[in-house]
User: Which sequence fits this backbone?
């Protein structure tokens, strides 16, 4: 190896090491990219997800009409509803509303046909548990009367906000970005 | 320390026993204190290395175990101690068990001459530097023994490569030391530090261009001796498991790793004593205790800065192949160090007491280089791209 190559090797080594250490030093003084999930994030991850994120399912039993559209729509049969029409009062009585979250594939086919937006996806995704049985969510504790939507605007102060949220969910879910598309 | 021990024994400590036995006990006590200090430094260095490494790679590193993860090394140490002690059946059991202790003795013996302050040294031998270079040679015996006794072909190869590397890099290291000895005339560590001053232009680093080059030669050679990246092929974690230490588990492997991290500190301490002025501080107070404390702090800060530079280099440079490693040593470092020594000899003949303009000039050169380096760092910071990933929660 000639003298020129020798000197060039030394110069290149020193130059590249110098530049390389400058680059790593510039990284050393920057903020790291790491997100320290789950306890040291700036906001809860669930709060940063979009409104129509398809997380775990939830049922607002106050506005469930007992139409069984979600049970029919589910491709995996993870929703089981027991609903009977009471002979005397002609009202639907909901005796059982079970969703097996272990089977659910979060496709959203059940929330689309719901008339009031009672069954909907939440931004919650941390559902892991130690037992499979705890993943079966039972939403009916005692038999309740199903909801009958009134002809005009809903005036009940308890049910009003829930119905408003449910309808907003349906608007966004069925036609994202265009709230007037669903009529 | 010798005078301190004599002073203690004269004051009547351990009065009931013969003087020599009392002396041995005092020395054993000092050795015990030093060993604790070293293990603490080695452990904290392992945690600090992981944090520094991580920040250079834009991540965080261990920060959960204690405040900022500061007792992570303790958790790792306890975990290692609790592991099963496996001695392979076909391994040479006495040698296998002896090897970590030999490496440990070689490493620990070097600390006897590390000067923490004026008078804060365990033994101020008048051949201090030579003693350190010689005693760290025992580490080579330990590594070779580990490689051979493991009864593992690749461990043996790793041990041989490691031994070849350490032995080859002793030469440029020793020649660089000689370059400094020319200026002091003594091998004693305290003597070398006393020949320097507290101001940067009085350090040997900036004394003349030959010692400047010798500093970098020495630092690189010591990195290679400690099996640190970019020269860590013998124990490359991603390539050879652990080279010579593959078959070691539990406390035995912990000893080898403590030797590696502690060696980093010896690198820093040697470079500071020889080139960066050691513990020299301006005499700002009459209080002896305060002055000693300031000296200790200054020495520790300087050597730890060099430890940080070694960690920084580890995070920056890729590994060199073992033949490239040997070629760097024999084709580049050895000839350059000899030429350097020749130049230093001529300089000492021309200026026996040094030449102040050259010292100031070299110091200015050093400052310019540091400023240029900071300019490059700022350039890279300006060019930093924004986060490419959608990251709403950070």
Assistant:
């Amino acid at each position: 190896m000639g003298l020129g190559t020798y000197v060039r090797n030394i110069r290149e080594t020193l130059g590249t090491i110098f530049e390389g250490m400058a680059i790593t030093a510039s990284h050393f003084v920057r903020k790291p990219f790491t997100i320290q999930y789950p306890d040291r994030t700036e906001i809860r991850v669930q709060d940063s997800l979009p409104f129509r994120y398809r997380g775990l399912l939830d049922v607002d039993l106050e506005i469930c009409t007992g139409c069984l559209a979600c049970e029919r729509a589910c491709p995996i049969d993870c929703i089981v509803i027991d609903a009977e029409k009471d002979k005397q009062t002609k009202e639907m009585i909901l005796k059982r509303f079970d969703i097996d979250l272990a089977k659910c594939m979060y496709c959203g086919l059940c929330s689309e046909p719901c008339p009031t937006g009672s069954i909907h996806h939440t931004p919650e995704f941390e559902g892991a548990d130690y037992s499979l049985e705890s993943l079966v969510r039972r939403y009916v504790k005692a038999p309740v009367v199903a909801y009958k939507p009134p002809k005009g605007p809903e005036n009940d102060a308890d049910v009003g906000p829930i119905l408003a949220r449910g309808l907003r969910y349906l608007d966004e879910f069925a036609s994202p970005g265009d709230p007037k598309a669903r009529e | 320390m010798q005078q301190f021990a004599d002073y203690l024994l004269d004051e009547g400590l351990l009065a009931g026993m013969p003087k020599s036995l009392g002396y041995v006990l005092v020395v054993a006590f000092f050795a015990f204190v030093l060993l604790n200090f070293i293990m603490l430094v080695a452990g904290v260095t392992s945690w600090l290395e992981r944090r520094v490494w991580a920040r250079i790679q834009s991540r965080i590193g261990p920060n959960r175990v204690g405040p900022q993860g500061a007792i992570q090394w303790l958790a790792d140490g306890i975990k290692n101690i609790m592991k099963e002690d496996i001695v392979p059946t076909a391994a040479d059991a006495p040698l296998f068990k002896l090897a970590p202790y030999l490496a440990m003795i070689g490493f620990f013996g070097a600390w006897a001459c590390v000067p923490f302050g004026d008078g804060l040294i365990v033994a101020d031998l008048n051949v201090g530097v030579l003693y350190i270079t010689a005693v760290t040679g025992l580490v080579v015996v330990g590594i070779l023994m580990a490689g051979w006794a493991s009864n593992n072909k690749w461990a043996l190869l790793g041990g041989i490569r490691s031994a070849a590397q350490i032995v080859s890099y002793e030469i440029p290291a020793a020649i660089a030391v000689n370059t400094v000895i020319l200026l002091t005339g003594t091998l004693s560590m305290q003597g070398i530090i006393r020949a320097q001053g507290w101001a940067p232009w009085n350090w040997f680093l900036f004394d003349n261009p030959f010692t400047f080059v010798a500093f970098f030669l020495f630092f690189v050679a010591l990195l290679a001796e400690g099996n640190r990246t970019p020269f860590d092929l013998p124990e490359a974690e991603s390539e050879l498991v652990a080279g010579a230490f593959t078959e070691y588990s539990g406390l035995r492997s912990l000893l080898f790793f403590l030797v590696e991290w502690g060696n980093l500190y010896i690198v820093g301490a040697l470079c500071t004593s020889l080139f960066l002025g050691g513990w020299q501080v301006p005499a700002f107070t009459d209080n002896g205790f305060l002055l000693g404390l300031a000296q200790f702090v200054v020495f520790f800060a300087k050597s730890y800065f060099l430890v940080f530079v070694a960690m920084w280099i580890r995070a920056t440079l890729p590994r060199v192949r073992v033949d490239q490693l040997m070629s760097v040593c024999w084709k580049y470092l050895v000839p350059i160090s000899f030429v350097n020594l020749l130049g230093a000899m001529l300089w000492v003949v021309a200026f026996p007491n040094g030449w102040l303009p050259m010292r100031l000039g070299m110091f200015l050169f050093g400052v310019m280089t540091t400023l240029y380096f900071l300019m490059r760092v700022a350039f890279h910071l300006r060019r930093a791209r924004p986060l490419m990933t959608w990251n709403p929660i950070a």
